[in-house]
């Protein structure tokens, strides 16, 4: 198995894990932050429905459909 041998890294039991470049680290942390912001945003919006505390059709108020007599 040839793997380039450039840059530093850590070898354990014959497997070398190379040190990531700075832009990989920064991009990974940025995307991780976006993921957690999205998860927390959706939990704020959908949490009660997912947890079973509220039905999805409850709490929308009157949308002007009129009375169905």
Descriptors:
alpha+beta, 12% strand, 69 residues, 2 strands
Structural description of this entry:
The chain crosses the membrane at residues 22-41. InterPro entries: NDUFB2_plant/fungi (IPR044980). Keywords: Membrane, Transmembrane, Transmembrane helix. This is NADH dehydrogenase [ubiquinone] 1 beta subcomplex subunit 2. By secondary structure, the chain is an alpha+beta fold. It has one helix at 22-51; strands spanning 9-12, 15-18. The chain has a two-stranded antiparallel sheet. The longest helix is centred in the middle third of the chain and has 30 residues, at 22-51. The chain is elongated and about 60 Å long. The model has no long low-confidence stretch (mean pLDDT 81).
Structural class: alpha+beta
Average pLDDT confidence is: 81
Element-level helix/strand string: EEH
Low-confidence stretches: none
Shape: elongated
**Termini separation:** 77 Å
What's the count of strands? 2
Percent helix: 40-55%
Main sheet: strand order: 1-2
* Main sheet summary: 2 strands, antiparallel
Helices, by number, come to 1
What's the layout of helices and strands?
Layout (H helix, E strand, L loop, with lengths): L8 E4 L2 E4 L3 H30 L18
Antiparallel strand pairs: 1-2
